[in-house]
């Protein structure tokens, strides 16, 4: 099976050559993230680095994919787990140690 780091490295490799963007995240907070401008919009990879649920405020409707304890088994068998994105509105709650791919169009 595939480990979560496979999905993160695959996603970050797709950002190679794109313009990185600054994010306004508290340095002491549980969420670590990287953002880049892609042809589709702003792509953000966010990770909850702690065991407690963390909330990310999204500035507008986004398309997301999440890897957490619930989706771990399916992601371990699917190398394209983060490719399909689902519409999402409002804040995004990430369970402990979850990873999210977030696409903000435009």
Task: Tell me what the structure shows.
With 106 residues, this protein is of the alpha+beta class. It is built from two helices and eight strands. The chain has a six-stranded antiparallel β-sheet with strand order 1-2-3-8-5-6, with helices on one face. A two-stranded antiparallel ribbon has the order 4-7. The longest helix has 11 residues. The termini are far apart. The mean pLDDT is 95.
Features:
six-stranded antiparallel beta sheet; 2 helices; 16% helix
Number of strands: 8
Question: Which blocks of ≥5 consecutive residues have pLDDT under 50?
Answer: none
Report the helical percentage. 10-25%
**Overall spatial form:** globular
Radius of gyration: 13 Å
Strand order of the largest sheet: 1-2-3-8-5-6
Structural class: alpha+beta
Measure the end-to-end span.
35 Å
In round numbers, the mean pLDDT is 95
**Main β sheet profile:** 6 strands, antiparallel
In N-to-C order, the SSE pattern is HEEEEEHEEE
Task: Enumerate how many helices there are, as a single number.
Answer: 2
- Measured by DSSP, the beta-strand proportion falls in 35-45%
């Amino acid at each position: 099976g595939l480990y979560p780091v496979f999905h993160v490295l695959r996603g970050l490799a797709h950002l190679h050559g794109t313009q990185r963007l600054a994010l306004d995240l508290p340095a002491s907070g549980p969420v670590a993230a990287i953002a880049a401008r892609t042809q589709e919009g702003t792509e953000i990879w966010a990770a909850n680095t702690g065991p407690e649920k963390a909330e990310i405020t999204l500035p507008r409707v986004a398309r997301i994919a999440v890897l957490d304890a619930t989706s771990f088994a399916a992601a371990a068998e699917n190398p394209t787990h983060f490719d399909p994105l689902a519409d999402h509105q409002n804040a995004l709650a990430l369970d402990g140690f979850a990873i999210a791919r977030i696409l903000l169009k435009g």
